[in-house]
Each structure stands twice: as C-alpha cells, then as structure tokens.
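Page 47, continued from p. 46.
Same chain as before, 334 aa.
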Amino acid sequence: MTKSKFENQEKSNHEHLVDTKMTRKYLAFSPSETVERIEDVLDFKAREFETIGYVYAIDENGILVGVVSLKQILQSKHGTQLKEIMNTNVISLKQHEHQERAVYVALKHGLKVIPVVDSEHRLLGVVTQKSILSIFHHEFRKNLFRTSGIKHVKEIESMDTPVFSLVKVRFPSLFIGMLGGLIAASIVTNFEHVLSSYIALASFIPVIVYLTDAIGTQSQTLVVRLLAIEPGFPVSRYVLREIKIGIILGFVFAAMLFVAEIVGWQQIKLGIVVGMAVFFSMIFQAFFSTYLSIALSRMKKDPAIASGPIATIISDVTTIAMYFAIAMMILQIF
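Result:
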C-alpha cells in the first residue's frame, strides 16, 4: 500500500470515530455549583450551546463525575448544589470508539445525548441527538449495502452515478461468489459416484444449505450487536453458548429431517446422512459465524464484514463438503 493510500485509509477510519461526531458546546459545571447559577447561565447564554438537555458535573481536572437532566435542574431549589442531585453513574463513550456504538448505547439506555471521555475519563464533548440519528442513518445504509455485497459509497444512491462506477462496486462480491460456486460445483462433481447411487442426496442440498446459512446469519447478527453494546463481554462463555444453541437446534432439525426422509423416501441410510449433515453443519456454522465476527472486531475491523455474499458462499461450500463427506462415510459403513 502506498503512503498516500495508507494516509487516506487512516483518514477514512478516523472519520467514523466518536470524537469526530461530538460537539464541545455543552453545559458543564463544578459539582459545587448551585442551581441558581446554572439557571443564570441558561438565561443569558442558552443560544451558545448546541445541547442543553443535560448538565454535566466535572471536577477540577475535567473528569466527568455526574450528570443532571435540565428538567431536574428546573425542578430544584436555587440553593441546591449540583452534587446533591446529580447521577454519578454516567453512561459515556470513549473518544476512539466507532461511531456505531453511539447508536447502540443511545437505544439501550434511552439517551438523547451521550458524553465522550478520554482514557482518564475527562469530558471532551457530547454526541447530540442529531448526530446520533445521522450516524444511525449512515450505518444502516452501509450495512444494508454490505449485506448485498455492495461497497457503500455516497454516489451509489444518485441517479447521476455512471453505470461503470456502479458496476465497479458490485462486481467484486459477485466475482467471489462465482468462484465459490465453482468450488461447490467441483465438490459435487467429485462425489458424482455417490450421487449416481443415491440421487435423492441432491434433493436435500437446498434445505441443508438454507439451515446452515440461516443459523450463521442469526449468530452473526446477535454477536455484532453485542460487540457494539457490550464490547467487554466474556468471549469464551458467549462462544460456548452459541455452540450449545447450535447443538440443540442441529439435533431438532436433524430429527425432523430424518423423520421426513423416512416418510417420503423410506431410506434409513439417507436419513442418517441428512440428519448428521444438518447436525454438524449447524454446530459448525454457529461457531464459525460467531468467532469470525469476534476475530474481526479484535483486529479493529468492522465485524459486519462477516455478513453478505462472501460469508454466504463460505458457508455453502463448507456445508456441501461436509454433507458429501458424511454421505460417503456413512454409505461405505452401511
């Protein structure tokens, strides 16, 4: 990567951090300040602030120690000190966190404004409701396009965007998907002798692929949300829980498909193959989707990258390979 490209990438990454979305025009006072003094400031300087919904308490070092809503300020007596009515359990954001976390924190805690602090908990600014809505809109569009395998650029939604530019942003994921499809076709071809003996195996490919794709998408969606809301959650415990969920769901759907196969095709060997393939594929995909998202987050990459056509084709290829490997093993035994 050239120096200019690296610098552009760094600039692009920094543009999506919380500290680029905050304002420094907020109300902050010493904990010993009185309600009367705060109201005087509001009377004469209210227009100078971008947000006045909350009043923040900071000590002599600028460290955030509390917060009070404007409503509570107006309902308190003039002689009341800020420290007497402030909430010391302040929900805040770190300055270098991704902007997407602001949306999740606002939704989880019902906040209209979120303070931003540094590593020493000094108050740097606040993310206003307007900024939170703007971030939500941006992240929603980005994730929507990514799910479709399209790199999100501002010009893509304009009717004036040249056709070639649109082709350029849509081509990569489709090309990778085609390569994945060729790999899947190659796998099926290598097991042609098994298919020729048990043609019914091909009938179950769509349902097995769908179930593994679905559980992978569910796992990935849930862990991405958790990474944004509670980035410090116990990873090992969470991954183990997803594996347990995969085992339970895998067993349930394996049993149902086994019964369906016995009723519809009356081939016990085929039922065992389909059941085992679904069972192990769902367990693997629940683990893989979860761990991949966590690994991307640890590498400072957007975990939502794990969604979309590329992730889908990886799931499809591994599922088909596992399906036919199990088929060959079981059919040889019996």
